[in-house]
Design goal:
The complex is a heterodimer of chains A (about 160) and B (about 525). Chain A is mostly helical and about 160 residues long. Helix content of chain A is about 75%, strand content about 0%. The chains are: A mainly alpha (about 160), B mainly beta (about 525).
Chain lengths: ~160, ~525
């Protein structure tokens, strides 16, 4: 009975976290990857990995914990793609945007770390300290990477920005 | 509108356009979790059962269900049993934030780490499990290959990449500008790629692995993606709309065979093992492994359908080709048995790592069924793959605690014994009498780590050479056991006696409870 109760509790917590966080995490991940299918894979993987540990995560930290897992998985996903050097391009994902096309195209062209800083700072509205913690870098690096990203966007978008 | 505000608005609108399908996603997550929960505690049980040699068809199905893999097709021949291996974490070594790549040599394990925008090359002594050097790099380093006591890699610092060789203390001892990866290495040569402005073309460049001197440049006319060496050749996977595998003879530096890789999709790096070259190919969710004859370069048989995840091959060990693959639910090591040509997935890496983490890179150690994993956060972990019926090995160089091996052959702490009949590579001692025709048969020669050492109690050999055998020597302060023993005799080396030019030690030491013998490096013939 006790094991069953624990199981139910973990399962309920996972379901509650999924209901609350799946879509926000999917959106965050889609901004990082620029590809919805990859984002779906990563976010699903995050929930699978967290399932066994969810009872050890304080309830008020579940969102931050899952976000960290998603960002880590995304970073690993990027590295694996680079390592594998896929000779044949994957099918195009995430159709061309209808809104603010120029801005989004430039965001997608940012180097990985700059894009992550921009997305976490300006979409998630995280502090520089929180971004630093998630990306495992110093606050100074977050500042410099964000600054470089903004300079590049300003330069590429010219007067529009 | 300020750039920052416009950025927020753009990201917000872009995010809002992402809808997803939560019900389908939850269903898939539940299915995957259900698969895991179907067999609570089976991870330990399954692997233990396999280790005990319980490899019935049912056992195999259970293990693969637990691993989340499709069961093998019904037509799979009987006898395709599990390899009977289980993982054992031997050690975890902190190397600093954040490991990127890993290369495994005979003595040193090399790891690149990146802390913010700084890059370092870290060397870990695989005997003592200590970090022996931490060298700042001017840029990131990729495509590392270990060679003797050093490592080659491609450093990306300036406008052009550069090949650099680092010695065991992290010093740059050779450099070649303008060449890049991929890299392959054999006993004496480093193979690299030169790319001009034409992205569809490349040259294979052969470099002396010790000095960095250019030896040969071989135009390929196609873009080289992967290299591997083996069977007297270097193998180049090229892409030019189609994929070809080229065999370039190490003897003549000429292309001696070309294999059309027949399946469309993505192609993994090839690896030479067991007299063949193995190429994983992937299409959608399906994979195959192609087998190419290592000597003739001919495609052998039909592509082998992958019933388990095969990503990139790592190398050969224990009669199997090892693959490192990635799939939903984790990263997995799988094996292809060289005799039965069957694939199995013996190990989930996420479980083998010392911490719940993301595995960055995996390398098979050259001395046997050992893997080194660069973890996500700050460490490398050595995992010993313990074979069926074999006691878990003690990796720590606690020689006194290990069972005494037989007195007539060299064995390491993993229970692997070197052949008495043939030389098996520089990682294993090979001991034999001196040649009779030189009248050196009273002496004993030991080949190890690229050098040849003489035990010459009668003084027959040293009389002809400027080397000295010492039957009652004193161990240098930094000497350490190699892990190889013959009865109660241990084989020791001293890192300070490593010749940086040749990568060979000046002496080896035989240590037994009563005395220390120093055997000098001695290579010339008697004529």
């Amino acid at each position: 009975m006790r094991a069953g109760a624990v199981e139910a509790s973990a399962s309920e917590r996972l379901r509650a976290a999924f209901d609350e966080l799946y879509l926000p995490l999917l959106r965050l991940c889609a901004l990082l990857t620029g590809a919805r299918e990859s984002a779906e894979d990563i976010v699903q993987e995050a929930f699978v990995r967290v399932a066994a540990r969810i009872e050890k995560v304080p309830p008020d930290e579940t969102a931050a914990y899952l976000r960290r897992v998603v960002v880590n998985l995304w970073k690993n996903h990027r590295r694996r793609l680079a390592l594998e050097r896929r000779p044949y391009p994957r099918a195009p994902e995430m159709p061309s945007p209808n809104v603010d096309d120029a801005m989004w195209q430039q965001i997608r062209r940012l180097p990985e770390r700059q894009r992550a800083c921009v997305v976490l700072r300006f979409y998630e509205d995280l502090s520089e300290r929180d971004v630093a913690e998630i990306l495992h870098v110093s606050v100074g690096t977050v500042k410099s990477q964000t600054s470089r990203a903004l300079a590049k966007l300003r330069e590429e978008l010219g007067d529009e920005a | 509108m300020k750039l920052e505000d416009r950025l927020r608005e753009s990201l917000g609108r872009r995010a809002a356009a992402v809808r997803g399908d939560p019900e389908r996603a939850w269903s898939e997550i539940s299915e995957r979790l259900g698969r895991r929960r179907l067999h609570p505690g089976l991870r330990r049980l399954g692997i233990a059962a396999v280790a005990l040699g319980i490899a019935s068809a049912g056992g195999l199905l259970v293990l693969q269900a637990f691993l989340g893999e499709r069961p093998p097709p019904a037509s799979e021949p009987p006898g395709s049993s599990s390899r009977g291996v289980s993982p054992r974490i031997a050690t975890t070594v902190e190397v600093g934030d954040f490991p990127q790549e890993i290369a495994v040599g005979d003595r040193l394990v090399w790891v690149t780490v990146s802390d913010d925008d700084r890059f370092f090359l870290v060397a870990v002594d695989s005997f003592s499990n200590e970090v022996v050097s931490r060298t700042p790099l001017s840029g990131s380093m990729t495509d590392m290959v270990a060679h003797q006591e050093g490592v080659w890699g491609v450093v990306h610092a300036g406008r052009e990449p550069a090949l650099r060789r680092f010695d065991g203390e992290g010093r740059v001892v050779a450099e070649v500008e303008g060449l890049g990866g991929p890299l392959a290495i054999d006993e004496s040569s480093l193979w690299a790629v030169s790319r001009g402005e034409d992205p569809t073309s490349s040259e294979l460049v052969r470099v002396d692995a010790s000095t960095g001197d250019l030896v040969e440049s071989i135009p390929l006319g196609e873009s080289a993606w992967f290299l591997t060496s083996g069977d007297g050749a270097v193998w180049v996977l090229t892409l030019h709309g189609e994929a070809d595998l080229l065999r370039v003879s190490s003897e003549t530096n000429e292309v001696t065979a070309r294999v059309d890789v027949p399946l469309q999709g993505s192609v993994g790096p090839p690896v030479a093992a067991g007299g063949s070259v193995w190429v994983p190919v992937h299409r959608s969710s399906e994979s195959w492994v192609l087998r190419v004859d290592g000597t003739t370069g001919e495609l052998l048989g039909d592509p082998i359908p992958a019933t388990v995840t095969v990503g990139s091959p790592l190398g050969e060990s224990g009669g199997a080709v090892w693959f490192f693959g990635d799939r939903p639910g984790g990263q997995v090591l799988s094996t292809l048995d060289l005799e039965t040509l069957t694939l199995e997935a013996p190990l989930l890496l996420d479980e083998a790592a010392a911490k719940p983490s993301i595995v960055h890179a995996v390398e098979l150690a050259p001395e046997g069924a050992v893997i080194w994993i660069a973890n996500h956060r700050d460490s490398v972990t050595r995992v010993d793959i313990v074979a069926e019926g074999q006691a878990p090995a003690t990796h720590q160089p606690d020689v006194g605690a290990a069972p005494t091996p037989p007195p007539d052959r060299w064995c390491n702490q993993e229970g692997v014994c070197a052949s008495l009949e043939r030389y098996e590579g520089e990682g294993r001692p090979y001991e034999r009498p001196g040649p009779e025709h030189c009248e050196w048969d009273s002496a004993t020669f030991i080949a190890f780590r690229g050098g040849q050492y003489v035990r010459d109690e009668g003084g027959d050999v040293v009389a002809l050479a400027e080397v000295t055998y010492d039957a009652s020597a004193v161990l240098p302060q930094d000497a350490r056991p190699t892990g190889w023993r013959r009865g109660v005799v241990e084989l020791w080396l001293s890192p300070s006696e490593l010749d940086a030019q040749t990568g060979v030690y000046r002496n080896v030491y035989l240590v037994d409870p009563d005395r220390v013998e120093r055997l000098p490096h001695f290579s010339p013939g008697c004529v």
